[in-house]
UniProtKB/TrEMBL annotation:
Protein name (record): Sulfur carrier protein ThiS
Ranges in coiled-coil conformation: none
Organism, scientific name: Vibrio qingdaonensis
SUPFAM superfamilies: MoaD/ThiS
Record lineage: Bacteria, Pseudomonadati, Pseudomonadota, Gammaproteobacteria, Vibrionales
Gene designation per UniProt: thiS
InterPro entries given in the database record: Beta-grasp_dom_sf (IPR012675), Mopterin_synth/thiamin_S_b (IPR016155), Thi_S (IPR010035), ThiS/MoaD-like (IPR003749)
Length: 67
């Protein structure tokens, strides 16, 4: 198990966990969102293969309509 931060909350996941697995586990609606790991945007096309490591800081941003 490794410890990561997701939107400021600690979470333990398997050492083989991918970014997509974490998003699915947390039931995050990924429509219209962006994900940054350690302040770097991660392309959606790599989420399923992006393996996490201990102490990564993940931030999920949702697009908000308005003006």
């Amino acid at each position: 198990m490794i410890t990561i931060q997701v939107n400021g909350s600690s979470m333990e996941v398997a050492a083989t966990a991918t970014l997509q697995h974490v998003l699915d586990t947390l039931a995050i609606d990924t429509h219209g969102c962006a994900v940054a790991i350690d302040d770097n945007i991660v392309p959606r096309t790599t989420w399923a293969s992006f393996t996490l490591t201990s102490h990564m800081n993940i931030n999920v941003f949702q697009a908000i309509a308005g003006g």
